[in-house]
Amino acid sequence: MEQKNVIGIDIGGTTVKLAFVTYNGEIIHKWEIPTVSEGGPEKMVQDIATSIANEQRKLELSFDDFKGIGVGAPGYISLQEGIVYEAVNIGGWRDVPLSKLLGEATGYNVRIENDANLAALGEYWKGAGDKADNLLAYTLGTGVGGGIIANGELLHGANGTVAELGHMTVIAEGGRNCNCGRTGCLETEASATGIVRSAIDGIEKGRTTSLKAIYDENGKVSAKDVFEAAAEGDKLAEDVLDHVTTVLGLAISNMAIAINPSKIVIGGGVSKAGDQLLDPLRTKFDTYTLQRTGAAVEFVIASLGNDAGVIGAAYLALH
């Protein structure tokens, strides 16, 4: 039987990433278009459909060269119904029948999933996850997302909130406000945003730090600045990263005890710190988890970068 290509799409707050992908996970062609929320989901779907047709024409590929489309979108998703229940960072999308709309616009069968879940699936299939049957994936970026693969299957849960790993409570009282409406979520502490907030808190409290000069000059600091300062022995930066690895190690250890993974994949912009993040994180994880649970686990940095979402979406379309 002929093996057809598929189309992987990763819808983000600023760009929509698209790729033509072979049945065995090789990217033939990839590109991006702006995420334009004005005009509602119907306009965005039409933009995506037009872009796909244009790229197919440029590459002299036909409609029949493709089997279907997989799509990752942020927020709460119903895989079965093909509905985006809520995606706050895309113009406040609510109850959008994305599978139906995009299917009608393109003529293809369309399957949708949460974007962080698909990044996990991409790493599982073609990346650092290396097809581990039991895998935890964390994406540490502006927020904290993730995905869970158990017995070789991506977990979905009852109503679209499985693997909202950034919304595990790690500060029981007095935590920072989170966009989800609660306080003390992992996302408020261990994301790039949380790292920056912790550093600025220290600066504003008058702690001695090399980060103050950066803050005074630019009006801001970055998570990268904090990691670089910590590498130079800056005490505030070291304390910030100690806090990050403590809360993250605790959260991951609790999840590991629940699903007993063999791989824990750390991705997102914060993961670019590499061993500077991974080594202390592993130490904290081992402090909190069961010894036997920890013995089964390998920590790895995600390897697919921005391609993880479209490759995971392709896997979704194929399977």
Structure in words:
With 319 residues, the chain is an alpha/beta fold. It folds into 2 domains: 130 residues, Nucleotidyltransferase, domain 5, CATH 3.30.420.40; 173 residues, 2-Layer Sandwich (Nucleotidyltransferase, domain 5), CATH 3.30.420.40. 40% of the residues lie in helices and 22% in strands. It is built from 11 helices and 13 strands. Helix 3 crosses helix 11 and helix 7 packs across helix 8.
What structural class is derived from the secondary structure elements? alpha/beta
List segments where confidence is low: pLDDT < 50 over at least 5 consecutive residues.
Answer: none
CATH superfamily of the largest domain: ATPase, nucleotide binding domain
Tell me about the largest β-sheet.
5 strands, mixed
Give the CA-CA distance, first to last residue.
16 Å
CATH topology of the largest domain: Nucleotidyltransferase, domain 5
What integer is the average pLDDT? 95
Strand line-up in the sheet with most strands: 3-2-1-4-8
H/E topology pattern: EEEHEEEEHEHEEEHHHHHEHHEH
Q: What kind of assembly state do the chains in view correspond to?
A: single chain
Total strand count, please? 13
Count up the helices. Answer: 11
Query: What's the domain count?
Result: 2
Q: What sort of overall outline do the alpha carbons produce when their principal axes are compared? A: globular
**Proportion of residues in extended strands:** 15-25%
- Determine Rg (CA atoms, Å): 20 Å
Name of the top-level CATH class of the largest domain: Alpha Beta
Helix percent reads 40-55%
CATH architecture of the largest domain: 2-Layer Sandwich
